[in-house]
Structures are given as structure tokens and as C-alpha cells.
Amino acid sequence: MFIQHLLRPHIAKLEPYSSARDEYSGEEGIFLDANENPIGSVTAAMYNRYPDPYQKKIKEKLAVIKGVKPENIFLGNGSDEAIDLLIRAFCEPYRESILIMPPTYGMYEVSANINAVAVQKVPLDTNFHIDLEAVKKAITPQTKIIFICSPNNPSGNLLSQEAITEILETFKGITLIDEAYIDFSPQASWLPMLEKYPRMVLIQTFSKAWGLAALRLGMAFAHSEIIAVLNKIKPPYNISKTTQDLVWDSLQYERFKNEMVERILEQRKFLEKKLTAFDFVEKIYPSDANFLLVKMRNAQNIFEYLLSQKIIVRNRVKVAAGCLRISVGTKEENQQLLQTLQEYVNINSKKIRLW
Ligand SMILES: Cc1ncc(COP(=O)(O)O)c(C=O)c1O
């Protein structure tokens, strides 16, 4: 195994739990092996049998869509599950670390903290690009996984392909590229590079462009040896039958996903243009995702005013000074947001006149 030396030693040696459905994976027969309810379910639909632990049907379909082999795919309860499992597989608590580039998706740090794994932080530069020299300098023999979020959350921009390539070529540990927002970006996925970079792991999700956040299904793509490790340490039946069935069905509607992406991108353009016209907006960061990071005067006040009007945006002032992150809504939602911001301006200009 080429990743043996990178794995935590006890994970490399681990004998995994063998579930009933591991030992017999056929679909026909009298199933008396998993202590299920033989009569049925309390609901009209039948949920009395455990689901496929390896989600083979979805993986076969997904492999065709993504141009990889089923053995290069791991499916998790949201991509957060894959993030957690990768840290657990590769990073020894109290001794080893992950490297992240803030401001970025918060779960990398939280997952590392849960697992008592150290977090090395190399901030993105002022335009939210990778500070490659600083990353290279920060890498130590204890650095096991570098997390790259591209397009990045919360800034929304794709990170430089050259910088990512340099990390892939030189870093001896696992390079994880989180592509949760890749469908909204003009750049293609790193998937075709899977063979060239066997220590690269790509993360994607059904929660964004596919519009299936409630089903909780995340994907990790990697060398089959890395996928085998994730399968070995995951909970046996991590993806429910409902999710497996609904996602399998959804995969035939990829064109609807693409149409929704088009509509969201149109609205992003509209929102960006209208927001720029507000005096309090200082900067809208270029976005390759389905949200905008907007730097504004009085961000905290505006956030609170929007909240009082039941418009909920993400307050990012603590991670990106003066910034709110605004997901692109429907046309009507965006218009409501803009109207509410105009009301905020009107109320405040009246206040100033009264003074
Ligand atoms: C960059 C990034 N990665 C991963 C996730 C988690 O996605 P999932 O719903 O698949 O757990 C999110 C969620 O917002 C995200 O922004």
C-alpha cells in the first residue's frame, strides 16, 4: 500500500467491523442475518432492511458521470463525514497536524479540534489567494493534510491552479481540495488529475448545485487505497436507504442541476450589480460560487437590521473584517433583500437629518 506510511499505525492494522450485508450482498434470499424486523415497517413504505453499506448502485452511476471508477468514490453523510474520517485516518492526536488557509470553511478546524489534531494556519493573502511561500515554509514532518478550498468559502474565489499544482507536486502528505462549489465556477474540477496525484483527495457535495442539502450526501474522490481506508473506518451503514434511492433517481436529472446553476449565476450577476450601487458597500469580492462576500461599512448593524426583517445572511465580520456573506437567492428573494437594504439606507439618512 503506497499510503501505508502516512496512515496512523493502528488504522493501517485495523480489522474493520464486518456487517451482515458485508458477508452476503445478494438481493434475494431469506434474510435472517441482521436482526431486522421481518414483518415490515410502521410506515407504509418499507424501511425494515439495512441499506447497502457501500452504495454500489449510486457509485456505478456517479462513476460514469464523473469519469472515474466506482472504487475511486467514497460517499459520506455530507462531505463533513469525509473530512472527519480523513483526519482520523491520517493524523495522530496531540502529535500531528493539518494545515488550513483562513478565512476558509470552518469545519476543517472544528474536525481537527474534535480529534485533538493541531491546526497550522497560513492565512490567504489580502485578495484571498494562497501565500505559497508561507505554506511551503509552514510544512513540517508532522503536517499530514493540507486543506485547500477552491472556490473558497467564505471568499468565493477559485484559488490559483499554479499554487495548487505546486503543493500537489511537492507536499508529501495528503492534499485535500474541497470543491463544494465547483459547479458554479468557470474552472473544471481537479478530478481528471486523480491518477497523476495519488495523494490528492477531492471533496464534492450534493448539498449545493444539486439542491439536495437535506439528504446529506457528500463525495470524496481519491486513489482506491485511500477510499478503501475510508470505507474501513466509516460507520457501517452511513447513508440511509432514502438518501441512496433519492440520489440515485436524481442522477438522471443532471441537466436540471445545470439549469439551476445557470439561473443562480444570472442572479449572482444581478445581485452584484445592484449591491455595488449602495454607498455603504466598500467591496464585493469576485465570486466563483453561489454566494458573495461583501465588505461594507456598518456590517454588524446591517446584519442586525436584515435579521430584524427576517432576512438571514451570514455574518463573517470575525473572519473577514467588515464582511457579510450573502447566498444568492431566487429573483424574488434577492429583490426583497435589495429593497430591505434600501429601507435601511432611508431610515439611516432620516436619522442623520434629524440630528
Ligand atoms: C467548502 C464547504 N465544504 C463542505 C461543506 C459541507 O457540505 P455537506 O453539506 O456536504 O456536508 C460546506 C458547507 O457549507 C462548504 O462550504
Characterization of this structure:
38% of the residues lie in helices and 14% in strands. It folds into two domains: 4-254, Aspartate Aminotransferase, domain 2; 255-354, Aspartate Aminotransferase, domain 1, CATH 3.90.1150. The longest helix is centred in the C-terminal third of the chain and has 24 residues, at 331-354. The strands form two sheets. It has a seven-stranded mixed sheet with strand order 1-7-6-5-4-2-3, with helices on both faces. It has twelve helices and eleven strands. The protein has helices spanning 9-13, 20-23, 56-66, 79-90, 107-114, 132-138, 161-170, 224-233, 241-250, 254-276, 299-308, 331-354, and strands at 73-76, 97-100, 118-121, 143-149, 174-178, 200-205, 218-221, 281-284, 291-296, 314-315, 323-327. The protein is of the alpha/beta class and 355 residues long. The mean pLDDT is 96. Helix 4 packs across helix 5 (107-114) and helix 10 runs parallel beside helix 12. The site of pyridoxal-5'-phosphate (PLP) has 12 residues, from helix 4. Pyridoxal-5'-phosphate binds next to helix 4.
